[in-house]
Amino acid sequence: MSEPVLIERRGAVCWITLNREERRNALNEQVVRTIDAAIAEANNDRECRAIVITGIGDKAFCAGADLAKNAKGFAFDVDFSRPKHYIVDLFKRLQECTLPVIARVNGHVMAGGFGLLCACDMAIAADDIRIGTTEAKIGVTPMMILPYMLRILPARKLQEMCITGEQFSAQEALEWGVVNYVVPRAELDAKIDWLLSRVTNKSSTAIRLGKQAYNAMRDMGLRESLEYAQVMVPVMSSTADAKEGMGAFQEKRSPNWTGR
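-> C-alpha cells emitted (260 positions)
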C-alpha cells in the first residue's frame, strides 16, 4: 500500500503531496498527523526555505474529511479525553510555521480541504477547479475551518458558502483573495516554480521574522501591534542577513544570504 502522504525535498523546498487519489485526497487522522510532522520538521531545518502542499493527480487538491463508512481516523470522531483535535493541531502548526507555505491547487477543493487552503500563506490554482464548503449538504457546518475562512473571505461570500454549500470557481476564488494566481492547468507547475524562485532568493531570516510578526500582529489591536513592531525592529536589524542586505545595497552587489 502506498503512503497516504508523500514528503519530498526538492532543493530548498519541502513538498507535501496528499497521495490518496482514489479518495480524492481526503483527510483522516494519519494524513493530518503526517502533514503536521512534515511541517514541523521542515520548519526546524535551516536549509529549508519554503513548503508546498498539493494533491496527487488532477481531480482534487483535497476533498476534506474522509466520510467513507470504513474510513480510519474519521474527522468527526472526538476523543473527549484529549483536549485538542488533530486538525486543530495541524492548523496551529501552520499558524506557528515561519516558512512560507504555498498551496499548489491542482484540483477541486472541498470542506476541510478548503480550510487547509486558507491556512496556507499563498496559493496558485488551476483555472478549472471548483471550491466549496459542502458541509451544509450533510447537515453540518464547517466549524473546524471557520476560523481561517473568517480571516480570508469577505463576510457575505463566507455566509453564502457556509449556508448554501454551493461550489464556486477558481476565478471567483481569485477575486475574493483566496488564491494569489489562477493559471491554465498546463502552466500550474511553471507558475509554482516562478513563485518559489521569488521566495527562495530572499533572506530566510527576514521571511521567518516577518511571518512571526504578521501572525502576531493579526491577532492584536493597533496599539498593541505598534508596541510589538518597535520591539521587533532592533531584533530584525541585528540579524546577520539584515547587515548583509544593507551592505550589499550600499556596495551595489547581490547579497549573500546565510539565514542568520
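The chain has two domains: 5-200, 204-251.
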